[in-house]
Amino acid sequence: MKTLLFITDLYYEAKGRNYYEEDLYLTSKLREEFHLLICHPEDIEAFEDHADLIVFRNAGPVANYKDKYEAFRTRIVSKHLKTYNSFNGKADMNGKEYLIELTNAQFPVIPTIDTLDSLEKLSNVDTYIVKPKDGADSIGMEFITKGELSEKVDSASKNTLVQPFINFEYEVSFYFINKEFQYALYAPDKKKRWKLKEYVSTEEDLAFAKRFIDWNNLDWGIQRVDACRNEEGELLLVELEDLNPYLSLSEVSDETRNNFVEAMKKSLRKALQS
Q1: What is the C-alpha to C-alpha distance for residues 72 and 81, in angstroms, rounded to an integer?
Q2: What pLDDT, in 10s, does the model give residues 110-131?
Q3: Can you tell me the distance from the alpha carbon of 177 to that of 243, in angstroms, rounded to the nearest whole number?
Q4: Which is it for strands 235-241 and 222-229: parallel, antiparallel or unpaired?
Q5: Alpha-carbon distance values, 38 to 23, 41, 87, 160, 232 (Å)
Q6: What is the distance between the alpha carbons of residues 93 and 145, in angstroms, rounded to a whole number?
């Protein structure tokens, strides 16, 4: 049996979610096929040489341990560590810069800029959202007026993202393993982001989500495409979580959950054999 180093912060408190419950469930299933080591994201270096594959799961926002995360990323290259997800993604595992790239490439994404010189790329609205490029889990996010933008946005450092506030109908997330769609969940009450129900995706919905999965082109791993449905009925990308997406496995049916676990095991085997 191969050994997995399962990275998780079992004590991290996330609004509306119990990270530890999901990872306790996953580890109970993965140990049926693999030997498991479990450690906190700040302790990876002490255990990384004892595992065949490092599985980065519900480790919380990396901004909380940025230096150790960057050191880990460096060791992946220098020591040829094998990781899951693969660390060749272009989205959240590198911060939020990609939202600007996707905006400039005219992907269906909430328009995003990092300098007020590009303000014309955003719709003229009463309220804007600003957030740090290395943020996660709404850390550092603020709602401000247009008049406050110059106070909050440092166009020289370009470390802050600016987006127009969109009065969306609901948020929906599409979950993939490698490039294969697994399930979708949505929040029918937009005031309760993590009160989720299973969502029946249309072909158009899946084409939207798959476009971002294909753009990212990870070798292997789990990704979550978060989107919102605007008042015109269009889906717009909110974020592409390709580092450690929370999976909301407790919100899906037993059949869907079991299928996901089997697909994850298959994907892990592929990563180990690469």
Answers
A1: 9
A2: 999 988 888 888 888 889 999 8
A3: 12
A4: antiparallel
A5: 10, 10, 20, 34, 45
A6: 30
CA of 225: how far to CAs of 129, 183, 190, 240, 241, in Å? 20, 11, 17, 5, 6
In the three-class reduction of DSSP (H, G, I as helix; E, B as strand; rest coil), residue 6 is classed as strand
Q: Identify the residue whose tokens are 């980065």.
A: 56
Structure-token match 């140990």, residue found:
31
- The CA-atom distances, in angstroms, between 218 and each of 184, 206, 221 are 20, 18, 7
**Measured CA angle at 183 (ends 177, 186), to 5 deg:** 125
For 238, the 3-state DSSP assignment is strand
Bridge partners (DSSP) listed for residue 215: none
| pTM for the predicted model, two decimal places | 0.94
